[in-house]
Design brief:
By secondary structure, the chain is of the alpha+beta class. The chain folds into three domains: about 30-105 and about 275-370, no CATH class; about 120-255, Serine Threonine Protein Phosphatase 5, Tetratricopeptide repeat, CATH 1.25.40.10; about 485-655, 2-Layer Sandwich (Heat Shock Protein 90). The chain is built from 17 helices and 19 strands. Strands 2-1-7-6-5 form a five-stranded antiparallel β-sheet. The protein has a five-stranded mixed β-sheet with strand order 13-15-16-18-17. Strands 8-10-9 form a three-stranded antiparallel β-sheet. The longest helix is centred in the first third of the chain and has 72 residues, at about 5-75. The protein starts with a helix and ends with a strand.
Length: about 650
């Protein structure tokens, strides 16, 4: 059998060994969990890829069905030229005529209807007076006469030339008035351009040259609004010219009708005779960054078509494709939109592409399943697995923490026990040394005077009493901790008890220069107490006050009624033991009542003690249903207060602390 120290070392290593044993399976579980998590994520990526591929195929089928339905309707001989939904137009080309419904939806027309224009012969004389002979007054009079004619075309030509002559003459307000009259003339054209459109442009030109800063804006904004709303059926060249002038006049405020321009481009493409164009089909046409889908059917002597903008596709066709492809996110890229690039999918996401060249559709379809998509509970399973791994890590960390804490507590307890043994040995050595010295003096001094012999005997008695008190304290503390210390309660005058203790304590301090004052308030301070136990508690406080008094030699003991703040449950007696010593830091005040614990100040000042005095006092006061409090500040001393309830009405007797 090994030595006790070897057994102790082996016992102390058990927590560390237990921690290692617990850590190994925890580490194994964590490794396996991480591998399972990686496999689960790989399966999730594979599953997302499969879903994206399937979603893309379903979207292709859904859009094919929509286009087939439109193609079938356009090819039906009974199909009538009906009004389409918002975001789309119908086009019918028969012979050389192109009909668009609604007519104002396209920005320009491939072959707009020609409007009546004035006869050139009517304006030969006024133009000769204006340009050849520079007779502006004559030209003005002739143009005014023409502007008064009943024929709208002649009147429009006269008003325009009248405004031009007035402008040359510097009569700007009259020129503007003539142009406003021209705006009211409708249904005629001047040089192929609607007369009112010509007048609106001329007013903007005058405002730019002769108007105030805001005049041009006020004239150009209504013109832009009417142009973008399709007020005039004009050809592409006229539209581009007017839109370009508006860009010059309005600058950053100029806005192009991109949707109407895209529809017009599609109509223009349909109107062009193309021998290679299939009899039926679909394609995308883009302009100005916007694309439109054209679906057409060619029959003898006619072409029936539908042109749809992205907003129509998203509203009418795309929802069916999206519903059929959930949980994937679908995106359309028009085949004609060469600037659009497929964005790279986010990390962990899966994407499937169906190119227009492969499907025959006018779009490239992208189906994306995001990385955070919850597929068949994969996310919940991953969360559960992560929670399990976190729990294992927590348990392993908690176990390690507890092992380390237990080890530290064991080391601290061993150190406290070692300090206690050393302190007790010192406490025993002091009275034993005194006894030995006085015994030698008595043995060697047969002729000692009677008074000196009596003093030696008294010193021996005090040393013996101190040794007895120390032994009884240790035995009592052991019984208190085991719960076997009996208490004999009886009515006790706390003031008288404390006075007697202070007197006895003064005798103990004889020759050490301490002054111990004791003040007892007038009144009844009767309590139920075990005289010996309570006396030991107060004695321990007095002994501590002496040890930690530092350079001070004054102690104060008070007995009186406890404050209601300290004893809120009813009348109580307070016993205060005060010193003006080294004090106790606030951080240590809760720990000093634990056994074997001594403050840093005591250790630094090399003050001897067992470390059980305050712990014993705490036990005793608790057995008396009281409390012990401390109020201390380093360098200014300490006050320990014992509060005990007033005498109980139920009598007194012997009570076990258990």
């Amino acid at each position: 059998m090994g030595s006790p120290s070897g057994w102790l070392r082996a016992t102390r290593s058990l927590p560390l060994l237990l921690g290692v044993v617990l850590a190994l399976p925890a580490a194994t579980l964590i490794v396996l969990g991480v591998r399972l998590l990686a496999q689960d994520r790989a399966l999730a990526v594979q599953r997302r890829g499969e879903i994206a591929q399937s979603a893309a195929d379903r979207a292709v089928r859904a859009l094919e069905q929509e286009i087939t339905a439109v193609t079938r309707r356009l090819g039906d001989a009974a199909w009538e030229f009906d009004a389409p939904a918002h975001g789309s137009i119908h086009v019918l080309i028969a012979g050389t005529g192109v009909r668009v419904e609604p007519a104002t939806a396209a920005a320009w027309h491939p072959n707009p209807r020609r409007l009546p224009e004035p006869r050139a012969a009517a304006f030969v004389e006024p133009e000769a007076a204006e340009f050849q002979t520079a007779e502006l007054d004559k030209a003005l009079a002739l143009n005014r006469r023409l502007a008064a004619q009943p024929d709208p075309a002649t009147r429009a030509g006269g008003l325009l030339r009248q405004a031009r002559v007035l402008r040359k003459m510097g009569r700007i307000p009259e020129a503007e008035a003539a142009l406003r009259q021209l705006i009211a003339v409708s249904g005629v054209a001047l040089d192929g351009v609607p007369a009112d459109l010509v007048a609106r442009q001329a007013l903007c030109a005058i405002a730019k040259t002769h108007g105030r800063p805001n005049d041009l804006r006020e004239a150009a904004l209504p013109l832009q609004t009417d142009l973008n709303a399709g007020r005039w059926t004009i050809d592409r060249a006229t539209y581009e010219f007017v839109a370009g002038r508006l860009g010059e006049w309005l600058g950053p405020q100029a806005k192009r009708a991109v949707e109407r321009e895209t529809l017009a481009t599609a109509v223009e493409w349909l109107a062009r005779a193309d021998a290679e164009r299939p009899a039926a089909g679909s394609r995308s046409v883009a302009t100005g960054g916007l694309s439109a889908v054209v679906i057409w059917v060619t029959a003898p002597n006619r072409v029936a078509a539908m042109v749809a903008l992205p907003e129509f596709v998203a509203r009418a066709w795309w929802p069916a494709a999206v519903r059929a492809s959930s949980p994937a996110n679908l995106r359309l890229v028009a085949a004609a939109d060469t600037r659009a690039k497929a964005a790279a999918p986010a990390e962990g996401a899966a994407e499937a592409l169906r190119a227009a060249a492969d499907t025959g559709l006018p779009w490239t379809i992208a189906a994306t399943v995001p990385a955070d998509a919850d597929l068949e509970g994969l996310a919940a399973r991953e969360r559960s697995l992560l929670a399990g791994l976190a729990a294992v890590l927590f348990l392993a960390a908690a176990g390690g923490f507890l092992v380390v804490r237990a080890r530290r507590q064991e080391i601290a307890l061993a150190r406290l026990q070692s300090d206690f043994v050393s302190a007790v040995s010192h406490e025993f050595r002091t009275p034993l040394t005194a006894l030995g010295q006085f015994n030698e003096l008595l043995e060697d001094g047969d002729d000692l005077p009677a008074d000196k012999r009596r003093a030696y005997h008294q010193a021996q008695a005090r040393a013996t009493q101190r040794l007895h008190r120390l032994v009884e304290s240790l035995l009592d503390f052991g019984r208190m901790e085991a719960g076997r210390r009996p208490y004999a309660f009886q009515p006790v005058d706390a003031g008288a008890l404390v006075r007697d203790l202070v007197d006895e304590f003064r005798a103990e301090l004889d020759g050490r220069g301490f002054e111990v004052r004791c003040d007892v308030e007038p009144g009844d301070h009767t309590i139920d107490a075990d005289v010996e136990a309570l006396g030991r508690a107060v004695w321990n406080l007095l002994d501590n006050a002496v040890k930690y008094s530092g350079e001070s030699r004054a102690l104060q003991v008070n007995v009186g009624a406890a404050s209601p703040v300290v004893a809120p449950s009813g009348p109580a007696v307070a016993i205060d033991v005060c010193d003006v010593g080294i004090g106790i830091p606030r951080a240590e005040q809760a720990r000093i009542f634990q056994k074997f614990v001594r403050g840093e100040g005591a250790i630094t000042a090399h003050i001897k003690g067992t470390g059980i005095g305050l712990a014993m006092a705490q036990h005793i006061v608790s057995a008396h249903r009281g409390r012990i409090l401390v109020d201390s500040e380093p360098g200014r001393g300490s006050t320990f207060t014992i509060t005990l309830p007033g005498r109980r009405d139920s009598g007194f007797g012997v009570r076990d602390s258990r």
